Amino acid sequence: MPGSEKSVAPKFRRRADDRPDEVLDAALELFADQGFANTKVEQIAKRAGLSKGTVYLYFPSKQAIIEALVRRAVTPVAERALAHAGAFAGDPRNGISAALRQLAHGLADVRILAIPKLVVREAALVPELAQMYRHEVLDRVLPAIEMLIQRGIDAGYFRQVDANLTLRSLIGPILVHLMLADVFDISPPEGLSFDRLIENHLTILFDGLSAPEQVGAP
Amino acid sequence: MPGSEKSVAPKFRRRADDRPDEVLDAALELFADQGFANTKVEQIAKRAGLSKGTVYLYFPSKQAIIEALVRRAVTPVAERALAHAGAFAGDPRNGISAALRQLAHGLADVRILAIPKLVVREAALVPELAQMYRHEVLDRVLPAIEMLIQRGIDAGYFRQVDANLTLRSLIGPILVHLMLADVFDISPPEGLSFDRLIENHLTILFDGLSAPEQVGAP
Amino acid sequence: MPGSEKSVAPKFRRRADDRPDEVLDAALELFADQGFANTKVEQIAKRAGLSKGTVYLYFPSKQAIIEALVRRAVTPVAERALAHAGAFAGDPRNGISAALRQLAHGLADVRILAIPKLVVREAALVPELAQMYRHEVLDRVLPAIEMLIQRGIDAGYFRQVDANLTLRSLIGPILVHLMLADVFDISPPEGLSFDRLIENHLTILFDGLSAPEQVGAP
Amino acid sequence: MPGSEKSVAPKFRRRADDRPDEVLDAALELFADQGFANTKVEQIAKRAGLSKGTVYLYFPSKQAIIEALVRRAVTPVAERALAHAGAFAGDPRNGISAALRQLAHGLADVRILAIPKLVVREAALVPELAQMYRHEVLDRVLPAIEMLIQRGIDAGYFRQVDANLTLRSLIGPILVHLMLADVFDISPPEGLSFDRLIENHLTILFDGLSAPEQVGAP
DNA sequence: TATGAATGAGGATTCATTCAT
DNA sequence: GATGAATGAATCCTCATTCAT
Questions:
Q1: How high is the pLDDT of residue B69?
Q2: What pairs with residue A210 in β-bridges?
Q3: A78-103 confidence digits (pLDDT tens)
Q4: Which stretches are labeled DNA-binding (chains A, B, C, D) (predicted)?
């Protein structure tokens, strides 16, 4: 009987374990939409289907929510990214291509994108967020990619460029693409296709913009 | 008329006409530092050297300040950028290089950088900011650069790439460079040099990352 | 019946009948330490070794706890005190000395002292406390002592003083002694000895402060 | 004109200087009546004739109000009391009598009595209050009186008693008198007369309770 | 009986905005 | 114009009390 009731109408829930995640889910959407300062705790509660007071049963303060939010999202990222980075032994172009595509796909998911957006926006106000994101994500992912580039240089696949700076050439377009679309509602005429962006970018990245047989200046 | 007023009582008080600008200057620094929501009108007043009430003599509300802030900064940008874009008739690489360098130099100025930072951060809260910035800056500058690229393609200088997407490859690194440094305090080992970033990026952009005599894939 | 219940599942849980008292014990310590308003029901529950909800099985409200607390402590006091007061038939100095010593010894016990402290502190907020304490303790004890004094006067042992006012001279020092130590952490150089206080006080009380062979006033 | 307006209807007051004191006056009454925890800031504001926000213009927090309250009351007390204590050179009984009478008169003023009552009640919650009161009042007044007693002993006016403990015999009755009346509404049949209390107490204090020609115990 | 998750009224504090001077 | 005192709506957080289990 209790089992059937549960499956029918778990209205009166008593699930202390799911609650924190439900709160974080609700908070993420709201923070992403309205920013931290403009989101009221009661809004979070309502969206999570609870009352104001219940939120405080699981988080000691509003700021603790945003920190938990980033912490939750940030931890699993590292492994995923690192796994791929080291996987490619031969031509590093394959690894870099794969990494970029994975990055782009990840950020195409609103739930995932919301986190770095939040971190960037609130970093000035809650420096812990930036610290955490840097420590857990950037400090793991960026060096891995940089190493990929450096390996390509050392093995003679790439020109003698600065790997650290080149990293920025690598990932920059993805960010701009996102920001133009997200903040300014500017998308390419053909729509916000990450695939096409990546392919175009990889073309330029590996082979350059200049035509193969250079047309001299007039 | 204002002149006569000045000569009557020039005392130590600044001309009333400069007041709005001084308020905007003060607000810009504070908003950039702490975000809009966390900046109090009294802080702005204090930094501008006047009292809270006086701020309301010039601006009807706090939000009006941030809007005026962006409007003031945004208007002159258009001409400057457009001037350069059309100037180069021959090899578009020169024009692109010049544009990138100018962009980078502009953004190296904290006062200038503060504006887009502010717009990005507060866009969700005050959509007018994003609209304004898009209308006044992006919708003028981006198409101009895109056209430069397109012209290069059409004239046979560049490969057959998508100009709109390539635009993102062009400016992306600058954005990432800034964001890594500003939000996450991550700079290249040699320091945050925009010049080196640009040179490295142009190298890749025009000639590609791959070594001139390609090492074949395994 | 309760016995059979006990024998069925005596486990490790304390008898339900003692619960209310355990709650009161816990509450007394906490109220004495932190005051009524600053003590949370959950603290009481935790210290009593049960859960918040269970407290409400025994007491309908937080205020009911403090009232029960005082009521419990207050009832037995009357008999004890009255017993001694009437016991001394001859020189009332013996009775008074005994009463004072007993009073002092009683109040030296933190558990006993806590009650009047609590009553005094919370009297303004919960007038029932003061009423109860007055009715159950003061209205029984004070007249008994006053009668002792009056009897001493009538029998020619004491001067013709006002018994009611003299009562205050009798017990005042004990109160001050306690308050200085408890609230302001002020104790005599030799330590907070009630015995020495009482002996000194009795000396003055019975024989006066002035030296036996008076030094005449100028 | 402004002058006459002021005297007629100073409704729209702009007197930043009086405000803090008005707030403290209002707070004192309320704290004395209801205790600190039960007094709402808005009540204080209303009684002081201002709005909630205005209170925070002058005090950073509710606790700052109670501290300022005690500080304001406490500072002037010291001088007054000390002045009298040292004044009497000959028979110290005069000095002690005067001191007691002054103490009693002071505490008969509700405004003055309210402060130590408040301190005693809230000491556990805001230890700064007790500290402040001790430092500014007790540590100055009590030693002065104790010295008076000691001087009487040394000069042969008094018996060889413990001056520090005798101090408690001296002031205790006044406190009990107050507390019985204030907390428990117990006054002598003839009314709450401090004068009669003091006279009765001084009689006992100086000459003892025992009849001049002692009636031997049976 | 016992639990502790859930509730929501209540209260301290902040701050954009107003307005008498 | 300029000031800064005053306001009160808004918001975070607390905690006594309830109630499904």
A1: 93
A2: B158
A3: 566 555 555 556 788 888 898 899 88
A4: 40-59
